[in-house]
Amino acid sequence: MTRNKITFAAVLMFTSAIFNVGCKKLMDAKSISGFDITADKQSYNIGDTVVFTIKKEADVILFYSGKAGFNYVGASRNYEAGTNILKFQSSLSQASKTNMGDTILLKISTDLRGHDSASIANATWKDMTGFAKLPSITTTGFVNSGAVDISQFNNADSVYIAFQALGKQNVLTQQRKWQIQNLTLSNTLSDGTFTPLFAAPFTSASNVTTDTLPFFQFVGWYQVNIKNNPSFSYITNNNAWNVGDYGINTVNSPLVINNKACNSSGVSIQTAYPITFDPGTTKNNPDNEDWLITSPVNLKLVRHDFPTTVIKNYVNTPSKGTKYIRSNDVYATYSFPLDSTFVSGKTYDMVFDAQNTSDNQKNETVKHLSIKIN
Q: What pTM did the predictor assign?
């Protein structure tokens, strides 16, 4: 056999193998008919344990207790209007009676279209300064803003939150220095579900410890210098907020001064709170107007509900409270204690979601049980 014939035969064998693999029938998911759940009672007292009987096996069995954050109906919920509360802290230094014209304003826009001075000028800004507590004299620490309700803006697709620092030229004194830190924003629904809006992607249910923490890295801060753009001294630069321009951070900044990544105003980019507007200590400093702005945020964003328990997963890891029976038409039992977080006099929709899956198919059944707490 010649070399060409050998090559041709090899190609035919390879093509045949690919064809056979490609035509292999994909396995269907196992039927889930007959899956059922029963409870040992229909009403319980707080402190009791509900014992559920699982009548048939499934690849995955998820349990939703019906409490806020653990509702089956909320598992696919991603957006819903609620109450939006903004909180932050601010501090002020270099405040004197001769620079009373210097100020900081809290503003919100729903129609900001760009990230430069022209876009800011063309946007519609609602002044919310009167709803927040801000320092008017030099502080030794930070002042809590209080809860600023911005729910009036949640009919928009997104909002921008901004701090506008204004400094007036004064031959007698330096301008005021401002700091902002620990900004948080939340969406609370009528069922008590709490969603932090500047946070990492949600991978678990609510956590009272971490949900109220401020996360600098997820706000997407950027600055826009309107007046008194400093000339670079390569020593220190002021008159701008110390965060990056839009899309610019310490990793991709094209401007590096003294081995530090800087924004377009030559100010070193901050990577953690507090954020500072520093006009320097020079008297007769020209007028300043500088904006500190968040990335756009959808106020209706909701952390979807999560299962209370994964009773069974693909690798057959049983959850706490699961006991395998595998006899008399019973696959397993699941014991669920009713702790003090449940409410007396309320009926909970407790749900089991059973799934059998394959590469190309999913069979699913959902069982609802009404459990009353006496």
A: 0.84
